[in-house]
Amino acid sequence: LLRDQCDVSRGSLVSTGLEELHTGKRIIARLCWLSTEPLRPHSIYTLQLGSVRVRAKVSQLLYAIQLENGEKMSCTSLELNEIGAAELQLAATLFFKTYEENRALGRFILIDPQSNETVGVGFI
Question: What is the pLDDT of residues 60-117, one digit of tens each?
């Protein structure tokens, strides 16, 4: 029950104000790539966190992780089943937490806007 009348719709986040949320149009996330089409800088996807969808551009790939030893290495793309980190620029402000702080508000999927297929999963 809300004290005041509010316009709340699908994707809205309701908070007591006691828990501090991060907000921004830029996030750094660890990604697991699920598509046969590689992830490259400047690519545009739909980021879905919960039921909220926002356009996301890959600003830069920060590194890939070697699965054999966990070592970080520079990369120009992420291929199928590779794990790495990237900076994403969002078209709208997003409310989130890090994955360590809150699993539900710290994980997302990336969707190809043309095929509507899930191409990656991410952790803030």
Answer: 999 999 999 999 999 999 999 999 999 999 999 999 999 999 999 999 999 999 999 9
Whether this prediction's pTM lies above 0.85 is answered by yes
CA-based R_g, the chain, Å: 16
User: Using CA atoms, how far apart are residues 97 and 31, in angstroms rounded to an integer?
Assistant: 16
Residue for token digits 């551009």? Answer: 57
- Nearest partner of 111 among 30, 41, 54, 27, judged by Cα: 54
8 A C-beta contact, residue 82 and residue 90: no
Strands in 66-117 per DSSP E: 72-73, 83-96, 107-111
Residues with Cβ < 8 Å from 94, sequence gap 6 or more?
23, 24, 25, 27, 47, 49, 52, 54
Q: Please choose, from the candidates 101, 89, 86, the residue with its C-alpha nearest in 3D space to the C-alpha of residue 31.
A: 86
Phi/psi at 117 (5° precision): -90, 145
